[in-house]
Amino acid sequence: xxxxxxxxxxxxxxxxxAVPDPDPIPRWWQQIRWGYNAALAAxxxxxxxxxxALLATVRDEESLAGAWVMALIPLIVLAFLDNARxxxxxxxxxxxxxxxxxxAWVRLLLWxxxxxxxxxxxxxxxxxxxxxxxxx
Length: 136
Fold this sequence. Notes:
Blueprint: H1 34-61, H2 64-91, H3 98-120, H4 122-131
Helix pairs in contact: 1-2, 1-3, 2-3
């Protein structure tokens, strides 16, 4: 007599052997430390003033393009250093303060370079582009 065997398999995805979902990582805008960056930006204004004055001197005596190049090269270098120091501080032992201080110092310099360039060059560039006349 032939035997007829029927097998029913039920796969439960939420059993005790299932791997739990990992915690979602916060989005990039949720990781920004607003108070830290605002404090560094405020502190950097003492350095941004002389940097902006130097850029204004180059802009007035040499050329606007030269001032932009002079502003962008330090920005690129400082942005790279800021990224490297942030990674170093994130990977360092929590009790070590030196990586955190180095990262904060580079971020301060980056804010000074950004604010000095932003407060000096864009308005003049807009005037040059719209009117074609160099302001006196």
